[in-house]
Write a structure and sequence with these properties.
The chain is built from 10 helices and 9 strands. It has about 325 residues and is of the alpha+beta class. The strands form 3 sheets. The chain has a 4-stranded mixed β-sheet, covered by helices on one side. The protein has a 3-stranded antiparallel β-sheet with strand order 7-9-8, with helices on both faces. Strands 1-2 form a two-stranded antiparallel sheet. It is globular, with a radius of gyration of 23 Å. The structure holds adenosine-5'-diphosphate and magnesium ion (MG).
């Protein structure tokens, strides 16, 4: 299989509807993209290197997912909507089985966010995956690290630390195995999932950006909460306080002794959650208080999920 056959077989797909921003995709010297009128182009690149960012034997499907996910996460952090991406690939060999799995993971996520592959480069070499994503955002709406203001509230999506714990368990690190047991990865399948298949928070990112003046700074967490928040603080010239009790603690992290638990929560990498700041005065407190169900009627549940015997009728002047 030659270079062009490889690209044709695994990466070239029929696409491009009339409303697509892709005017010209794979096959020419450049791709041509057309952002909507009145938008800025947001561009970001992230590279994954074998041995540094992933193990040699990682599932190629997971790797395809993650290579794109970490890039889409950067768009999410700015509040940009994806337009398309390029893929620069160095491969030690052209294995159909490996490429098939990789492309499957890659395109599943790409399709989910309507972010087509529009070009790239393919060469022989030690396994290395470099993706560049392009997105669009309205002028003035992109959330920047430099925009945190004194008095802002600090918000986090999801929870941190699981990817780090997964990594330590896979490496066979003593403190992780000792606290969580040798079967921890099997007992907590979400750990490997968090490390290998992170979810870019694109829907929330684009939503936050259109809130405009209420949301100030944002960053995606790739290198650990403390360090990445540190980038926001440095860029904004401010400090911050975090309430430890407010940080969500994943079930798998609970058996860890405090020092390692803190290290996972604050310094574990690969979380790909969003951290953002917002003005306290400009928002109404919002709480998740339950969910809509298929079963008719309303039930009020206690802490263990049992329905309480409380009246759920509203006040009636004539009753
Ligand atoms: P050039 O000589 O202009 O660099 P190439 O011969 O490297 O072009 O690539 C041919 C076409 O295939 C180009 O349109 C390029 O964008 C695309 N391409 C190459 N590698 C990939 C890849 N891994 N994924 C998607 N498109 C690719
Ligand atoms: Mg080339």
């Amino acid at each position: 299989m030659g270079e062009f056959e490889l690209i044709r077989r695994h990466f070239q797909r029929e696409s491009h509807t009339a409303r697509s921003p892709v005017v010209l995709g794979i096959g020419d010297d450049c791709a041509l993209l057309q952002p909507r009128p009145g938008h800025q182009l947001a561009v970001s690149t992230d590279m994954l290197v074998q041995g540094r960012h992933f193990f040699a034997d990682v599932d190629p499907q997971a790797l395809g997912h993650k290579a794109l996910a970490v890039n889409l996460s950067d768009l999410a952090a700015m509040g940009a909507r994806p337009l398309g991406f390029t893929l620069a690939l160095a491969l030690p060999e052209a294995s159909d089985a490996w490429l098939g799995g990789f492309a499957q993971g890659l395109f599943a996520l790409a399709d989910q966010h309507a972010c087509p592959l529009v070009g790239g480069d393919t060469t022989r070499g030690p396994l290395n995956i470099c993706i560049t994503v392009m997105g669009e955002v309205r002028p003035g709406l992109a959330m920047q690290r430099s925009q945190a203001q004194v008095g802002d509230d600090l918000y986090l999506t999801g929870r941190t630390g699981e990817a780090r714990l997964a990594l330590e368990l896979m490496r066979g690190t003593d403190w992780a195995l000792l606290a969580c047991g040798p079967d921890a990865l099997a007992q907590h399948p979400e750990l490997r999932e968090r490390l290998e298949r992170p979810t870019p928070r694109l829907e929330l990112g684009t939503l936050l950006a259109v809130l405009g003046s209420a949301v100030h700074a944002a960053i995606d967490l790739s290198d650990g909460l403390a360090g990445d928040l540190g980038h926001v603080l440095a860029a904004s010239g401010v400090g911050a306080e975090i309430a430890l009790a407010a940080l969500p603690l994943a079930p798998a992290l609970q058996p860890l002794p405090m020092t390692h638990r803190l290290d996972c929560l604050l310094n574990g990498g690969d979380d790909y959650e969003l951290l953002f700041t917002a003005a306290p005065a400009s928002h109404t407190p919002v709480q998740r208080i339950g969910r809509i169900s298929a079963a008719p009627g309303l039930r009020v549940l206690d802490a263990s999920g049992h329905a309480l015997a409380v009246s759920t009728r509203s006040f009636d002047h004539f009753a």
